[in-house]
Amino acid sequence: MAKKKSAKYSFINIVHESVTKAASVTRKGEVRIKRTDIKNAIEEAFNAGAKAAASGERVRFPVIGSLVRKEVKARKSGKGVNPFTGEPMEIKARPATKKPRWSFPRSLKDTFANKRNW
């Protein structure tokens, strides 16, 4: 039997589902949502995004950027020179690892680059 692939992660969908579950309607027809419920919904969405990114999926968060897993190659041990003292030293080996990588959208980079916003 083939393994069923889970749906792609969507920040907006997770926040929307959590908020609609937490919302209640008053007798006047007003929608009420507690601040703690909103906070929990956003935290839940970011935690789910982090888990999706750790599994290898590229996760996009609206306006603020995207998160992806970067694979860092292993490094052999070797010999080097301390640049400050000139003394020979041993460089330790490093195993292969997987690390988070955050990238910002062009619009956010332009906002920070514009001196009017300082």
The CATH architecture comes to Irregular
Calculate the terminal CA-CA distance, rounded to whole Å. 57 Å
User: Over all CA atoms, what is the radius of gyration?
Assistant: 23 Å
Q: What is the top-level CATH class?
A: Few Secondary Structures
**Spatial sequence of strands, sheet with the most strands:** 3-4-7
Mean pLDDT, as a whole number?
91
Number of domains: 1
Unreliable sequence segments: none
Give the amount of beta strand, in percent: 25-35%
- SS summary, helix count: 3
CATH fold group: HU Protein, Chain A
Main beta-sheet annotation:
3 strands, antiparallel
Q: Given the helix and strand composition, which structural class is it?
A: alpha+beta
Tally of strands = 7
Walkthrough of the structure:
This protein is an alpha+beta fold. It has one domain (11-117): Irregular (HU Protein, Chain A). The protein is built from three helices and seven strands, in the order αββαβββββα. It has helices at residues 11-22, 35-54, 106-113; strands spanning 24-25, 31-32, 59-61, 65-72, 78-81, 88-91, 97-103. The strands form three sheets. It has a three-stranded antiparallel beta sheet, with helices on one face. Strands 1-2 form a two-stranded antiparallel ribbon. Strand 1 (24-25) and strand 2 form a beta hairpin.
Write the layout of secondary structure elements.
Layout: H1 11-22, E1 24-25, E2 31-32, H2 35-54, E3 59-61, E4 65-72, E5 78-81, E6 88-91, E7 97-103, H3 106-113
Antiparallel strand pairs: 1-2, 3-4, 4-7, 5-6
